[in-house]
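Narrative of activities, Objective 1.

The group set out to show that a structural description can be obtained from nothing but a protein's sequence at a throughput compatible with the screening campaign. Below is one input-output pair from the validation batch, recorded exactly as produced.
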Amino acid sequence: MTRQGALCSMVGGIVTLLGLFSPTLVGGSRIDLLGFHPNLWGLVSSGVLAVSVSLLTGPPPEHLVKSYFGKPE
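Output recorded for this entry:
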């Protein structure tokens, strides 16, 4: 997981939820894509964005990985 992947995941999940619940602001009903609740779609879009953006941006710098997960010297 990269920083960019985490940020895109959070933003993409909330945008999906807001988009699917937006008809309720004007008196309509929520949008259930394929019969599934919008919370599921928010979770799915968040997960897909986290993995795909993290793979596209590459690994974090090696010195950060060692400082957080390496053995103390």
